[in-house]
Amino acid sequence: MRIVILHNALREDSAPDEIDVMAQVETISEALIRLGHDIFVLPCDLDLAKVKREILSFSPDLSINLVESLDGKGRLISVIPSLLDTMGIPYSGSPSESIHVTSNKIMAKQKMKAAGLPTSDWVGPYPEDVHCRSNDAKPLFADQKTWIVKSVWEHASLGIDENGLVRNAGLESIFSCLKERAADLGGMCFAEEYIDGREFNISIISGENGPQVLPPAEIVFQGYDGEKPKIVCYNAKWNEDSYEYSHTPRRFDFPSEDKPLLQSLKELTIRCWHLFHLKGYARVDFRVDRDGNPWILEVNANPCLSPDAGFFAALTQANMPFEKAVNRIIDDALRSVPSLPHSNAPSMEPCDHRTSPVDFQFRYDPETEDIETIRTIIQKTGFFHDYEVAVAVELIEERLQKGPYSGYEFVFLESDGKVLGYACYGLIPCTKNSYDLYWIAVEPDFQKKGLGKIILTETEKLIRHNGGKRVYIDTSDSSKYQKTFSFYKNNGYGLVSRLEDFYAEGDGKAVFMKMVL
């Protein structure tokens, strides 16, 4: 596939947390290249017209969204995914709406509280905002609690340090503190009740059967005495020379008595996944008080993917290769394609979405009626000779007679019981993990709507899940097949062989191949 990697453009004064996005770009670029994809890296700024033009110039099938801010402002984190929504281009991770709500810490806390999820009290924001507000009821005994001042929009622990704690202060004093610190915290801040206890990060990733919670991680506060608050401050994340950085390791090994707590954290993470309509991958951060009660700090719908970050560490602990995780994230992003029937996204076929079907499903078990269906589809394309049509029919007939022992597998794309297109593939005899794509065709009345892309993507997924590593496709190299050439190339297939005059004089054979690890 053609995949554009989008990240926030760096500035001369970019802070370490912003610069870290380049480590993510490098890591995921290497993974995508190993998976056989054609990539293009695009830094994004506030010139959205230019960003849109450059995205379209690459004609991507998918976007990897690594944008964490624009112009250094975390409040704009959902702008690029919103732009992709309007362009109809699928992207990795959660939808723009989910990113927006979870990035505003108060809006997220309001949603969690309304759903009955445990999240601590808060005061603010300052300045006031119609979209987010204090608890409906003012926190009781505010002057008997400890509060930590945070930015509403900015993440990466921006501005969080020991000076941000407010102890034994009334509401008036708390708001006074918020007013003083707002400018240094992205322009809007709030005070959250400080939970003195343990801190956990729970990563979660999409899967075929629903989200999978990765091994829980705890941040250990080594050498933090009673006076030093146990918080993951900015230094702990980004200043390698600081005490906090070297004394807050991550651990995955827990005593047996922690099992009920860890199970509770996993269940709460899944509830957050569904509550906020998350996709692809995410991370939920918790505090656990001295009585063992968990409290949700925040939901990160776009967590860092760099090798030294918590999500990557959780994948390693789960023995899940990064490439496999990337494939899961891509698969989840592509599942959204059917919901964009009127999209103007560049597809792998010339695109006309005016009559694109909204609802369709896949079928994998051939039926007797498919014999004539396949004959009709192949004939109507006008590309094949009668003897080639006969071969296509023979494959479905052999599958119906011998079942899986035939070596032929099928993918049918249907809408309202009508077959819109299909693919036939199988393991190449005498090979361990090389597959042949024998046929892929779309009913002519439904061509130019991106359905070929959808069928091919599903076929590749099935091959990969069966242990396949390479997919080969043979086609004619005559001028009649130039659109077919473009289709395969735009899907990430490379031309690996060309045999002149193979089919007839002047009609050679072209062999394409793609790695689908």
Question: Which descriptors would you attach to this protein?
Answer:
Aminopeptidase; 7-stranded mixed beta sheet; 6-stranded antiparallel beta sheet; 517 residues; alpha+beta
Pairing-aware structural class of the strands and helices?
Answer: alpha+beta
Can you tell me the CATH class of the domain at 347-515?
Alpha Beta
According to CATH, the fold-level topology of the domain at 347-515 is Aminopeptidase
Query: What is the topology, as strand order, of the major beta sheet?
Result: 14-15-16-17-18-20-19
Protein architecture, described:
The protein has 16 helices and 20 strands. The chain is of the alpha+beta class. Among the domains are: 2-90; 121-194, no CATH class; 347-515, 3-Layer(aba) Sandwich (Aminopeptidase), CATH 3.40.630. Helix 13 (370-381) runs antiparallel to helix 14. It starts with a strand and ends with a strand.
How do the helices and strands line up, and which of them pair or pack?
Layout (H helix, E strand, L loop, with lengths): L1 E7 L7 H4 L1 H14 L3 E7 L3 H11 L3 E5 L12 H9 L8 H8 L1 H10 L7 E5 L19 E6 L13 E3 L3 H11 L7 E5 L3 E9 L6 E2 L3 E3 L14 H5 L4 H4 L3 E2 L7 H17 L5 E9 L4 E7 L9 H8 L4 H13 L26 E3 L6 H12 L4 H17 L6 E7 L2 E10 L6 E9 L8 H15 L4 E7 L5 H9 L3 E11 L2 E9 L2
Parallel strand pairs: 1-2, 1-3, 17-18
Antiparallel strand pairs: 4-7, 5-6, 5-7, 8-9, 8-10, 8-12, 10-11, 12-13, 14-15, 15-16, 16-17, 18-20, 19-20
